[in-house]
Amino acid sequence: MAWPKYIRITPYWDGTAEKPTTILKLKHYLKVKKISFKSLDTLSGGTANYLFLLRTRAGVVKVVKHAEPYIASSDGAIPFPDDRMDFENTAMTKIAKLITPKMSPVRVPKIIKYDEEFKVLLMTHAGAENLKEAYGKHDLLHVSKVGRQLGEWLATLHHSTKETDSGEGGNPTGKAMYRWAYSHLAQVAEHYGLDVEFCKYIDGKYGSLLQTDDDCVCHGDFWPGNVLLEEGKLTVVDWEMCRRGCGATDVGQFSAEAYLLDRFCGGRGVQHAFLQGYREKMLAFGVDIAEEREFAKRVAVHMGVHLAFWPASVKWAEQEETKAVIELGHELIRHGDEEDLDWLGKNLLTGLLGKIEGSVSGWLKEAAHGQAKL
């Protein structure tokens, strides 16, 4: 027997807050929490969490981010501790206070409300397009300026957080996941006929360091896809992998992804500008990266691991070109491991290690008066 058309069946709801994994459950959650809204939409772009756009009656757009103890896109099949949202909340709260708009045009989203029990972040909306998407689409985008600003901001983050805690427990999940490329590098090398034993050696020597690095606060997933653009403003998002570590890993990851953008999407120079911006800001802080051999080595190795691993699963080009990038990654790792800073400074890390005209001490004097140039 069919139900009459005028009878509408709706799911039962007992009036308690639900974990917002769907639009309907988010409506229930917001009602219980007394958070008003006009409309809700699912926000695309993420795989680990549930993301929604909330529009208020005044027309203000906000973002709702919810974590479950698994990867959202896996439907519960892949575990991922939900305390990542605690680390993201802690990081964005602290960084917003440490790096003010007067210090850098780059910002982090403003947290409006955090519900620790339900792992729900309500924050400001920072734009619908990220740097990776915008790179090849907008001719008027000043890519080199953006790259330099991001490099300067990252240097400020690393320099300003030498003593800053990243959250209780230090985000062991973030550290473990960040090693993924190192621990699986040998599998990719075997597929492409490259040196498997060398990859195991690199994981043992450098991958293991990710568990104990403790120099500063690192973003943990710093790449163009996590930089949003809106009306000339840059916002760094997705802080759930934030941890204390070695800043060279942030530099290496962004540099690798920026290199891929330059190589395959228009050659607009974002990688070189980013590295120059980072070095320039560090020089202003009294640190010459070119003289920090261990740091430079870690940048090279991490960038090389990224290039030697991720293009095998994230498509940038056809098979032959992909293999060339992976082989280049291995070459970069070797030169980094051997501390061949001369080769690195003339090739993939020119912006970070290349020669600066004049002495460093002279440059620092100019920097103090705002006259220094790279």
What does this structure look like?
- This protein is α+β, with helices and mostly antiparallel strands and 374 residues long.
- It contains 15 helices and eleven strands.
- The chain has helices spanning 23-32, 84-98, 131-135, 143-160, 172-178, 180-183, 185-191, 196-205, 247-264, 270-284, 293-309, 319-337, 341-346, 350-353, 360-368; strands spanning 39-42, 50-55, 61-66, 106-107, 111-115, 120-124, 129-130, 216-218, 227-230, 233-236, 243-245.
- A hairpin with a 5-residue loop joins strand 2 (50-55) and strand 3.
- Helix 4 (143-160) runs parallel beside helix 10 and helix 7 packs antiparallel against helix 8 (196-205).
Radius of gyration: 22 Å
Report strand order across the widest sheet: 1-2-3-6-5
Helix content: 40-55%
Q: Could you list the spans in which at least 5 consecutive residues all have pLDDT below 50?
A: 6-10, 357-374
Percent of residues in beta strands = 5-15%
Structural class: alpha+beta
Spell the H/E element sequence: HEEEHEEEEHHHHHHEEEEHHHHHHH
Terminal CA distance reads: 79 Å
Number of strands: 11
Mean pLDDT: 90
